[in-house]
Amino acid sequence: MPHLEHIADIRQDYILASLDEGVTGNDPLAFFGKWFGEAVSASIIEVNAMTLASVDGRGFPHARIVLLKGVEHNGFTFFTNYNSAKGEQIAANNHVSLLFFWKELERQVRIEGIARQLSATESDTYFESRPYGSKLGAWASPQSQVIADREVINENYSTYLQQFKEESIPRPPHWGGYNVRPQSIEFWQGRSSRMHDRILFTAGADGHWSKCRLAP
Length: 216
Ligand SMILES: Cc1cc2nc3c(=O)[nH]c(=O)nc-3n(C[C@H](O)[C@H](O)[C@H](O)COP(=O)(O)O)c2cc1C
Description:
The protein is of the alpha+beta class and 216 residues long. It has helices at 2-5, 21-24, 28-41, 85-92, 120-128, 132-140, 151-164, and strands at 49-55, 61-67, 70-72, 75-81, 95-102, 107-117, 175-189, 197-203, 209-213. It has a single domain (11-129, 173-213), classed as Pnp Oxidase, Chain A, CATH 2.30.110. It contains 7 helices and 9 strands; from the N terminus they run αααββββαββαααβββ. Strands 1, 2, 3, 4, 5, 6, 7, 8 and 9 form a 9-stranded antiparallel beta sheet that branches. The two termini are 33 Å apart. It binds flavin mononucleotide. Flavin mononucleotide is lined by residues 46, 49, 62, 64-67, 78-81, 84-86, 143-144. Flavin mononucleotide binds at residues 46, 49, 62, 64-67, 78-81, 84-86, 143-144.
């Protein structure tokens, strides 16, 4: 396996930018918006893809990608199946972590926070905006369950296609959004010689943010 033998030789120096306490301001959500806008302007593919980590009952963390669908309620919104593995983990322990890596900008954003389900009305509104096929998919897939083969979800899809026909497809009760209210947000800008910039915001009990610089 020639490629695996040389992993240790893969190296990238980061040279694009720097990050100074002065430019982050005092509102990390506003600064996230600025960085997100720059990532969109840089035409990054799947710019809203973020790693979501949640913890199971044995204390094991589980990470997977989900799509950021809004920054609202002073937090970060994504949608999923409430009966999925992540849904069960969050129901038992709503402490989660979110991670963005925009490698084209040599930037990482780390978020730790508390996940709460959106209201049914908010989930309905977003579900309504989804393409027809995605709506059917939400009904057809028992996300995270073991299935015998692909036919299972193909058959489910056909069944729901028949059931709803031309009707508008309602949101499945087990599908909806979460909003993650951040407790901390760290902005990381890659710098040369691994001398990166890290600015960490931490929410105080009074809701105000404090910030500090971390060693890379
Ligand atoms: C680019 C990308 C975007 C994804 N977006 C979502 C999403 O928004 N919601 C979701 O439930 N799963 C999404 N997934 C699938 C999840 O990574 C994961 O496979 C699924 O949610 C099941 O995770 P779980 O078994 O840990 O609950 C996405 C995967 C990728 C690679």
